[in-house]
Amino acid sequence: MSGLMKLLDPILAPAARFYRAQLAKDLNKMGLRYEDLMSRDEPEVNEALELAHPDVVEGRYRRLKRASDLAFKQKNLQDYAPDMTLEPFKLEISQDVDKILQRDVEFDLLNNYKSG
Prior knowledge:
The chain has 116 residues and is mainly alpha-helical. Helix content is 68%, strand content 0%. It is flat. The two termini are 33 Å apart. 7% of the residues are buried. The mean pLDDT is 92.
């Protein structure tokens, strides 16, 4: 499998950079972060948000609310705050979500003997 990845890497790397740049541009239009796209309906995301600092949760809530308002008005964030510095790929809860997923997998593995 690694041989295939070495073969495809020169093709996929530029495509990945292009996609990331386009995604950043679209997120910046609404003032969102990549993590804001994670649904709170997922149990891992919901648990990570419950464990996160209140400022992180409040910031996410405000970004989502602002994006909803901007979408309704059909405006971009740059129309209102052109000098605002945005960080679309700043990670605040992704590590916690990954740890929760790993914990759940470990729990399932440790309790697998019960099903047999």
